[in-house]
Structure formats: C-alpha cells, structure tokens
C-alpha cells in the first residue's frame, strides 16, 4: 500500500539542524535527544546530560538540581551512576564552609558533555529532512483539529 503523503524534500521544508530543546510551540522544531547504552553499566541520555550542563553552568549540584526541578539526592544518584559506569568521577566537589561549597565537571565530565553534544548535533543535522517532515505532519494534524 502506497502512502498518500507527500515525501519531504529539502526545498519544501525549513532546516531544523540547529534546533535547540525547550521551544514553546510544537510546530517550530523537532529534535532527537539520544539515549546511549554502553554495555550493561553505562547509560547516558538527555536527563543526565542536562544535569551535567547545569552543573557546568552553575558550579553547584544543588543549584543545578533546583534549576531542573530535581531533588538533590536524585542529582547525586545520577552523578554516582556516571562515576561508577566510567570508573572515575565526572564531577569534582569542594566542601562547604565560609565561602560555601561548589562543584565543577572533571575533565571526564567535560569530555562526556562535549562528545554527547557533538553526537546530538550530528544526528539532528543528518535527520533534518525527516524531522522537518514530522513537524509538517504535526502541523497538518493540528490544523485538522481546528
């Protein structure tokens, strides 16, 4: 059975290869946020990566957890799962005191974050036509509701 839907062509659809998560309207952008499984001990996906990004940005595990609406304990569990999986710390912490504590990504944490980000960008660039077609289909479905 042949599909009656028009096949997407680059000239018909806007490029979404530079799309970023967090857009407010569904019809603007579609992105792929990969989940990666390495053996039985490592899983990396959007949630863990967002936590690493926020720790890098805010230099604090508690501030990163708050910014993501996550409990501090759960943030630590995520960090510990990465530490155990990679066999080395991904976040370095400084104990609190007069000046307060802090956290920063280790070299490994930075490398994980930059590698995942590059992979995500490459996947989204490669799939830009198909992503744009999905956006087009969603827009068509939304228009039919009206």
State the gist of this model.
With 146 residues, the protein is mainly alpha-helical.
Span of the ends, CA to CA: 29 Å
Give the fraction of residues assigned to helices. Answer: 40-55%
Please state roughly what percent of the residues sit in beta strands, choosing from under 5%, 5-15%, 15-25%, 25-35%, 35-45% or over 45%: 5-15%
**What summary fits the major beta sheet?**
2 strands, antiparallel
Q: Which regions contain 5 or more consecutive residues with pLDDT less than 50? A: 1-18, 21-27
Class derived from helix and strand content: mainly alpha
Mean pLDDT: 83
| SSE pattern, N- to C-terminal | EEHHHEEHH
Strand order of the largest sheet: 1-2
Tally of strands = 4
Shape: elongated
Structural Rg: 19 Å
| Total helical elements | 5
């Amino acid at each position: 059975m042949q599909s009656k839907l028009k096949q997407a062509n680059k000239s018909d659809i806007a490029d979404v290869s530079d799309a970023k998560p967090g857009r407010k309207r569904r019809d603007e952008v579609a992105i792929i946020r990969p989940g990666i499984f390495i053996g039985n001990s490592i899983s990396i996906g959007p949630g863990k990566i967002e936590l690493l990004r926020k720790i890098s940005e805010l230099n604090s595990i508690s501030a990163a957890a708050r910014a993501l609406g996550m409990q501090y304990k759960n943030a630590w569990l995520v960090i510990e799962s990465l530490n155990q999986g990679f066999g080395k710390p991904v976040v370095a912490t400084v104990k609190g005191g007069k000046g307060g504590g802090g956290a920063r990504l280790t070299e490994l944490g930075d490398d994980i974050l930059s590698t995942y980000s590059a992979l995500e960008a490459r996947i989204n660039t490669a799939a830009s036509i198909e992503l744009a077609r999905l956006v087009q289909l969603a827009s068509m479905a939304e228009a039919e509701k009206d």
